[in-house]
Write a structure and sequence with these properties.
Distance between the termini: 19 Å
CATH architecture: 3-Layer(aba) Sandwich
Structural class: alpha/beta
Strand content: 15-25%
Order of helices and strands: EHEHHEHEHEE
Number of helices: 5
Oligomer: single chain
Helix content: 25-40%
CATH class: Alpha Beta
Strand order of the largest sheet: 2-1-3-4-5-6
Length: 117
């Protein structure tokens, strides 16, 4: 899959997804400090899903109707980068790829919620 990893995403998570064969553009590595609407725009233009720990992206998409191909929102604030990576791997393995497109996916330590956007 193709992802944009928001600046808040741990390098261990980005590296792990790349090792799994995913194409990951890291905001932390390449575009540090750009505003949230620009992060969403980049992901949309490049046909990538956004991975973030920032709830503001979901709000921008839902309330301001900014375009997106999908957001994976990690709500695991106390987890390490390695734990977040493991959880993302579990979720990506458990659901078909089409479940993630045009969807806000909220990933907690013990549940996953899908909301079409």
């Amino acid at each position: 899959m193709r992802f944009v990893a928001d600046e808040c995403c741990a390098p261990a998570m980005v590296d792990g997804l790349r090792l799994d064969g995913h194409d990951v553009y890291s905001i932390r590595e390449s575009s540090r400090g750009i505003p949230d609407p620009d992060v969403l725009g980049l992901a949309f233009r490049e046909d990538r899903l956004l991975i973030t720990e920032d709830s503001d992206h979901g709000k921008l998409v839902v309330l301001r109707c900014l375009p997106t191909h999908g957001i994976l929102y990690l709500r695991m604030h106390a987890a390490t980068g390695t734990e977040r990576l493991q959880r993302i791997r579990e979720v990506l393995t458990a659901y078909p790829t089409e479940h993630f497109h045009d969807t806000l996916v909220v990933i907690d330590a013990d549940k996953v919620r899908f909301r079409k956007i």
